[in-house]
Amino acid sequence: MKTSIFVLAAIATLSLSSIASYAKDEMAMPMPTSKATAQKDIVGKGTVVFENKAVGNVTLKHEAIPAIGWGAMTMEFKVKDKMLLDKVKKGDKVQFTLEPQGQDYVITSIK
Ligand SMILES: [Cu+2]
């Protein structure tokens, strides 16, 4: 009798632990993470046509940016941080990185 109680207890423990490990496996399922959806940096090249440090805008004549399907054009960008414009001036050839922000793209680095 003592033995059968022990066996029952052992079975109960086993099944509990297998349920526990099953649940753990479920949680370990690959979930979409920010890493998986993170975009590659969008990098462009261009020439500074005009910069407005006070507002945080820069107008660039940029080359095509295939990453986002843009052709070459002259357009105005916002910069994420006005400090980014401290080192650029009209006529500079620059390389810049864009980050989507709503419908727009903002410059996150420029050099
Ligand atoms: Cu453009």
Would you mind describing this structure in some detail?
Helices cover 27% and strands 36% of the residues. With 111 residues, the chain is α+β, with helices and mostly antiparallel strands. It folds into two domains: 2-33; 36-110, OB fold (Dihydrolipoamide Acetyltransferase, E2P), CATH 2.40.50. A five-stranded mixed beta barrel has the order 1-2-3-5-4. The termini are far apart. It binds copper (II) ion. Copper (II) ion (CU) binds at residues 62, 70, 73, 75.
From the structure above, extract its key features.
111 residues; alpha+beta; OB fold (Dihydrolipoamide Acetyltransferase, E2P); five-stranded mixed beta barrel; 2 helices; 5 strands; 27% helix; 36% strand; rod-shaped; binds copper (II) ion
Topology (elements, then pairings):
Layout: H1 2-27, H2 34-37, E1 42-52, E2 57-62, E3 73-79, E4 93-101, E5 104-110
Parallel strand pairs: 3-5
Antiparallel strand pairs: 1-2, 1-4, 2-3, 4-5
Bound molecules: copper (II) ion (CU).
Copper (II) ion binds next to strand 3.
Supply the CATH superfamily name of the largest domain: Copper binding periplasmic protein CusF
Quick one: overall form?
rod-shaped
CATH class of the largest domain: Mainly Beta
Proportion of strand residues: 35-45%
Which series of helices and strands comes N to C?
Answer: HHEEEEE
| Average pLDDT reading | 82
Number of helices: 2
| Structure class | alpha+beta
Bound molecules: copper (II) ion
For the report, how would you describe the main beta sheet?
5 strands, mixed, barrel
From the N-terminal CA to the C-terminal CA, the straight-line distance is 81 Å
Count of discrete domains = 2
